[in-house]
Amino acid sequence: MPSVVALVLLAGLSEAAGRILPLVARRPRVSPPVVAGLLLTGTAVESAVIALWPLTAYTLAELLPHAAASGAAPGWTAGQVAPMLLGAVIAFPLLGPALHLMLLTGVGAGLAGPIAAASGVGGWSAAACVAAAGVGLAAAVEAVRRLVGRIGTTRTRRAAA
User: The whole model's pTM is what?
Assistant: First the structure.
């Protein structure tokens, strides 16, 4: 279990680095303490999203009318979460989003089997729950990210005025 926690944290770091590297490339005058703070915060948020993905998918699967839960919610195994260490591929211009989507699709496909077995739903239903959970968590994080960015931009404009 400690290795899975370490892998989830490293995967969160990789995701955060993939999001922060383009920012640093566009704004080279960003101070190292600001970059470190963004990286630390991003790591915590992305790690939490990765950790919550199987639990959220299992919860969605339990809500289906034909679900027959046969156990506890499945968690990550080291083999399932290890590919997420490549999350920094989103930093590559143009190619990154496609690689990131392929990576998440592969990891989600691997997660669908344990969700189906634990919840008692079919494979396609479990895959739909995994996809819905992934998209929902990503949308929530993106909404918060945009809100924080907008608040930060507003404060900067007020301070300049």
Answer: 0.87
